[in-house]
Design brief:
Strand order of the largest sheet: 1-2-3-4-5-7-6
Number of strands: 7
Structural class: alpha+beta
Largest sheet: 7 strands, mixed
Radius of gyration: 15 Å
């Protein structure tokens, strides 16, 4: 398996969007009901140096990005994780590689806390994050509605041992 990683480019958008739509279709990946209309809109809320794809040749196997949780100075080192893996690439360790790459990139760019909000039904994603040093902070009960139904999120966070220690 010859995987490579890099920052996303506009040329990646069709594959990124397709992977995102597949995640949306599961009903357990996001509250969003559709992908953004453009790469620029999708990237607008993300830290560009922490928005990566894992690919094999010209095929994107998955993507990850880090979005700042606030524009307040005190929270500049806190980011929210998003990871999506192509359905055909599940079970191959792609999510694990992406999360490890994202952790490394986040620390290189001064992030000291990463957080993730995951539907409790998305057990694989919860385990993936825990395997990579995230701890469960708690359950956000009825945090948002999806198709008229209140949904919970498991709230996880990872504190860097390299950034923000002094």
């Amino acid at each position: 398996m010859n995987y490579s990683s890099r920052k996303t480019t506009k040329e990646d958008w069709n594959q990124i969007k397709s992977i995102y739509k597949a995640g949306i279709a599961t009903g357990n990946a996001t509250f969003e009901s559709q992908a953004p209309p453009s790469y620029e809109k999708w990237l607008s809320k993300a830290h560009q140096d922490c928005t990566l794809v894992l690919h094999e040749g010209n095929t994107i196997l998955g993507w990850c990005r880090l979005s700042p949780v606030s524009d307040r100075t005190v929270y500049l080192g806190v980011g929210e994780v998003s990871i999506y893996v192509h359905p055909d690439s599940k079970g191959k360790g792609i999510g694990n590689l992406l999360l490890q790459l994202l952790i490394k990139a986040s620390e290189a760019h001064g992030f000291w806390t990463l957080q993730a909000s995951i539907f409790p039904e998305n057990i694989a994603s919860i385990h993936l994050h825990q395997k990579n040093g995230f701890r469960e902070v708690g359950i956000r009960e009825r945090i948002g509605k999806m198709d008229g139904v209140w949904r919970d999120n498991v709230f996880l966070e990872r504190r860097s041992v390299l950034v923000g220690m002094n």
